[in-house]
Automatic annotation (TrEMBL):
<protein>
    <submittedName>
        <fullName>ABC transporter ATP-binding protein</fullName>
    </submittedName>
</protein>
<dbReference type="InterPro" id="IPR003439">
    <property type="entry name" value="ABC_transporter-like_ATP-bd"/>
</dbReference>
<dbReference type="InterPro" id="IPR003593">
    <property type="entry name" value="AAA+_ATPase"/>
</dbReference>
<dbReference type="InterPro" id="IPR027417">
    <property type="entry name" value="P-loop_NTPase"/>
</dbReference>
<dbReference type="InterPro" id="IPR050763">
    <property type="entry name" value="ABC_transporter_ATP-binding"/>
</dbReference>
<keyword id="KW-0813">Transport</keyword>
<dbReference type="InterPro" id="IPR017871">
    <property type="entry name" value="ABC_transporter-like_CS"/>
</dbReference>
<dbReference type="Pfam" id="PF00005">
    <property type="entry name" value="ABC_tran"/>
</dbReference>
<dbReference type="GO" id="GO:0005524">
    <property type="term" value="F:ATP binding"/>
</dbReference>
<feature type="domain" description="ABC transporter">
    <location>
        <begin position="5"/>
        <end position="234"/>
    </location>
</feature>
<keyword id="KW-0547">Nucleotide-binding</keyword>
<comment type="similarity">
    <text>Belongs to the ABC transporter superfamily.</text>
</comment>
<keyword id="KW-0067">ATP-binding</keyword>
């Protein structure tokens, strides 16, 4: 199946000479949730803005549903909904009216039934006759989503969708994304909250210094790059790792009171059994042990450091 969104060799250099995007190539599958991660200034917003037609690329190509986004802008943009971090809205405009107006901007006929359905899905229906200024911050964030969905896009961009909102709204936004995915909407989100990517994404892309560092299925990324740690709480502190244990990936922590073993949980042999045997031979006793799996955040931090 052809990707619903395809970016090839995309570059953006601003007038001052700063290169925000460096030969970015990316394919997005239809119906997936794709999380784009990266530190501040990595190029996330520039990439989204370029795809959505808000920024003109220096070179490269963008195809949306087979449409050349640079030559056939209207057809490509029709397929895209964008939920920015912030959007200036008329404070006295009514909630229902502003969503309906967003639909009209794309030349589509009025459809009050659809608008009402969107408002209900986002728990905004009871506020439809209220002015925007009367909404809470969380409700305004939902309104941005409603406006982006008014023209029935097949691709939805969420730029930091839960930045600055409380935990309850964040989880509610996760639910909304899940429901949109069930309806077949392709979702690309940028986020600083790694747990969002861990919770929602099918695939993860990491961008750093304007370059795509990695694109991988989330589960496969966790399997390939996630570390498994065995921590042994020692009966007596050690000043150094005994020579007999040099074959293992061990390090001392907590002033020598903990011994940490890093291993691949997917390998045929983890080496734990032989490690415990050699610990006994070396006279190293431990009181307790525990295992931990590195999170997506750990992987992200490592990748950015390498970059």
């Amino acid at each position: 199946m052809s990707p619903i969104l395809s970016v090839r060799d995309l570059e953006k250099t601003y007038d001052g000479g700063f290169q925000a995007l460096k030969s970015v190539s990316l394919d997005i599958r239809q119906g997936e949730v794709f999380a784009l991660l990266g530190p501040n200034g990595a190029g996330k917003t520039t990439l989204i803005s370029t795809i959505c037609g808000l920024v003109t690329p220096t070179s490269g190509s963008i195809f949306v549903g087979g449409h050349d986004a640079l030559k056939d802008y209207r057809a490509a943009r029709q397929m895209i909904g964008l939920v920015p971090q912030e959007m200036p809205t008329a404070p006295f405009e009514m909630v229902g009216d502003t969503v309906a107006f967003s639909r009209g901007l794309f030349g589509l006929p009025p459809n009050r039934e659809l608008v009402d359905s969107i408002l209900k899905d986002l728990t905004l229906y009871e506020k439809r006759d209220n002015p925007i200024m009367a909404l809470s911050g969380g409700m305004k964030r939902r309104l941005l989503v409603a406006k982006a969905l008014a023209h029935e896009p097949q691709i939805l961009f969420l730029d930091e969708p839960t930045a600055g909102v409380d935990v309850e709204l964040r989880h509610d936004m996760w639910r909304i994304v899940g429901e949109l995915k069930k309806k077949g909407v392709t979702i690309i989100l940028t986020t600083h909250y790694i747990e969002e990517a861990e919770e929602m994404a099918d695939r993860v892309g990491v961008i750093n210094k304007g370059e795509i560092v990695l694109v991988e299925d989330k589960a496969e990324l966790m399997r390939k790059l996630g570390r498994k740690l065995l921590t042994l709480n020692l009966a007596e502190p050690l000043s150094e790792v005994p020579a007999i244990l040099s074959q293992y990936d061990l390090c001392l922590e907590d002033e020598g009171s903990s011994l940490v073993y890093t291993y691949d949980s997917q390998a045929d042999r983890t080496g734990i059994t032989s490690l415990l045997t050699d610990l006994s031979k070396a006279g190293v006793r431990f009181q307790d042990l525990q295992t931990d799996q590195s999170s997506l955040e750990d992987i992200f931090v490592d990748l950015v450091r390498q970059g």
